[in-house]
Design a protein that fits this description.
It holds the Pfam family CBM_3. By secondary structure, this protein is mainly beta. It is built from 2 helices and 34 strands.
């Protein structure tokens, strides 16, 4: 059977398809964003298009990308940078071919969870920005890989990527003697989600074990407490160092950032703590943060913004070196939202007047009242946000940071429209710890382990991250 032109797709010869699968017509498209003969990682970006007449659930559909390993003992790791269907709904495992050829002895098999949904006739999955790399992070060779095509930088049909469903091959041709329905000589193995942590990687850990915002150790440890006036937020509000306090809780020290307001700019006091040095770029950032939906007293409803973020300054409108990665929780809405919402936003740049924003964001309209583990990872291909160990969103270029950044926590009032009462009220945002490790992409479990290690060793502060 051959799948021919549909929606601009060219014909391609396929391996024989059993009659039981004759009603399914799926095609695979491929492009690469890493076209060199060698690369830090291989980047096979894939799409699937339904060229048939019936809807097809993606669960049960698999793709195989075939490659030549760099050696018999070399292992590889899979990652998803971004996908329209959601990286959490895409799986990646490696297998060994039964009959190695000059251009292939391994394959990366891509599968889908039920959360990926179905493809209706004429639909495609959209981008699946996939990648894999050597477990030892050495440069890999891809010019001798069966499925690789360094000149294919826009999506086109991929005759050397196979697509299977229900034991039948619907698309593509495997390397000779390696029908995907034939079991491999060794079963596919799922690699660890992340490589081991380099024990010598520069890192910052702060347990916020201070007596107050005026404690000399706060400045000595590389923090600046904001004071005076200035954005973001309500013009005329004041940044109040005295409203950043520290207290013991469960054996750990907790930073409390209080925001107070009486519904006027002059009666609004906000808080911000920022690293003094701009020296954080690629790596893993993490903090345990307690958001609060309601004030400690007085009327509720103010448009409060409770944050953990990293950023580079905007030196001019549309500054190409500006960057920012945000966790912003709005417990009472704001910016046109009517109730609680969490944003994670990756910024490339912006123009303040007239407003022009170049960013990408994910959002969740639900309450995040209480403690949450926030994490973001940045490498040369993607920014990934996690909340409580689960992927919240992923962004790629052009949103990756170009220059070193600050780490920041702030708690501020977006506007005075949420609650106009003159009764004073206060909101709290609390932070248990902050952690950063340079040039290492850690899983949430690895972050938890590193923090537990610092605490079991009695380490309340360390900073070995070199200055920029």
């Amino acid at each position: 059977m051959a799948v021919c032109t549909a929606a601009g797709l060219a014909c391609a010869a396929l391996v024989t398809v059993p009659a039981s699968a004759a009603t399914d017509s799926l095609t695979a498209q491929y492009r690469t964003s890493a076209g060199g003969a060698t690369a830090d990682q291989s980047e096979p970006w894939l799409e699937i298009t339904n060229t048939g007449t019936t809807s097809v659930p993606l669960a049960g559909v698999t793709l195989r990308y075939y490659f030549k390993s760099d050696g018999p003992n070399v292992t590889y790791r899979y990652a998803c940078s971004w996908a329209v269907k959601g990286c959490a709904n895409i799986t990646g495992t490696f297998g060994t071919l039964a009959n190695p050829t000059a251009t292939a002895d391994r394959y990366l098999e891509i599968g889908f969870t039920a959360g990926a949904g179905s493809l209706a006739p004429g639909q495609n999955t959209g981008d699946m920005q996939l990648r894999f790399y050597r477990s030892d992070w050495q440069t890999l060779t891809q010019s001798d890989d069966y499925s690789f095509n360094g000149t294919q930088t826009t999506y086109a049909n991929a005759p050397k990527v196979t697509l299977q469903r229900g034991g039948a091959v619907l698309w593509g041709t495997a390397p000779a003697g390696n029908d995907p329905t034939t079991p491999p000589t060794t079963p596919p193995t799922t690699p660890p989600t992340t490589p081991p942590v380099d024990p010598n990687a520069p890192a910052l850990f702060d347990d916020f074990n201070y007596t107050g915002s005026g404690d000399p150790a706060v400045q000595q440890h590389g923090w600046t407490v904001k004071s005076g006036q200035g954005g973001p937020g309500v013009p005329g509000a004041t940044w109040s160092p005295q409203d950043i306090t520290f207290q013991s809780s469960g054996g750990n020290s907790i930073m409390n950032m209080r925001l107070t307001t009486d519904g006027t700019a002059a009666g609004t006091k906000e808080t911000e703590l920022q690293t003094t040095a701009r020296k954080f770029k690629n790596g893993t950032y993490a903090a345990r943060v307690k958001f609060n939906d309601t004030p400690t007293g007085g009327p509720d409803g103010d448009h409060v913004n409770q944050t953990f973020f990293t950023f580079t300054p905007l030196n001019a409108p549309m500054d190409p070196n500006y960057s920012e990665q945000d966790f912003e929780y709005l417990p009472n809405g704001g910016w046109g939202e009517q109730s609680n919402i969490m944003y994670s936003t990756s910024w490339e740049t912006y123009n303040p007047d007239p407003w022009n924003a170049v960013n990408a964001h994910v959002e969740s309209r639900q309450s995040y009242d209480g403690w949450h583990d926030l994490q973001l990872t940045v490498d040369n291909t993607s920014i990934t946000y996690y909340i409580d160990g689960q992927v919240f969103g992923t962004h790629g270029e052009p949103y990756l940071p170009e220059t070193p950044q600050w780490i920041d926590f702030n708690h501020w009032l977006i506007d005075l429209n949420g609650q106009t009462s003159g009764t004073p009220r206060s909101y709290n945002e609390q932070v248990d710890y902050v952690y950063f490790i340079k040039d290492q992409v850690l899983s949430p479990a690895q972050v938890t382990s590193k923090v537990a290690g610092y605490r079991s060793a009695g380490t309340t502060f360390t900073d070995t991250v070199p200055g920029s």
